[in-house]
Amino acid sequence: MVVSDQSNPPVCRILDYGKLCYDQKRKHKSQKKHQIVQKLKELRFHANTDEHDFQVKLTHAEEFLKKGYKVKLALVFRGREAAYQNQGFEMINKALKLLEAFGNAEGPPVLAGKSILASLNPK
Questions:
Q1: Are residues 79 and 101 in the same domain?
Q2: CATH number at residue 76
Q3: How far apart are CA 35 and CA 21, in angstroms?
Q4: Cα diameter, the chain
């Protein structure tokens, strides 16, 4: 390993290459252990989801947010259900309002193809 290549003659240090590789691997493993990975959980609804089923899904979302997961709400339209987009937006907005105490919405719900998407970050 070159210590100073500007001097005359250049100064070098003799290293144990195996030890250098071992130390680099341990340092890399330690950095990997301490990094935080944001996990995402997705809950899918349909336009005709019953109130009880809706509440059960919201309790799951509360648990995920309490554990620190990011939650993605997706209301998926099947077939002719896409004609009732207003009801879908009402349902998603209702869910966001009920989950407001546990997480912050990233933005307003967005229509993407045949689904309405909204995501929440834990508080």
A1: yes
A2: 3.30.110.10
A3: 22
A4: 82
| 52-78 confidence digits (pLDDT tens) | 999 999 999 999 999 989 999 999 999
- The answer to pTM > 0.85 is no
3-state helix, strand, coil in the chain (%, to 5): 45, 25, 30
Same domain? 97 vs 49: yes
| Whether residues 59 and 19 fall in one domain | no
Residue 24, domain extent: 2-33
Parallel, antiparallel, or unpaired: how do β-strands 2-4 and 11-12 relate?
antiparallel
Number of separate domains in the chain? 2
Amino acid at 121: N
d(CA 89, CA 3): 64
- Residues 1-56: tens digit of each pLDDT: 677 777 888 888 888 889 989 999 999 999 888 877 778 999 999 988 899 999 99
Written as six digits, the tokens of 118 are 């909204």
> What are the tokens at 53?
């089923």
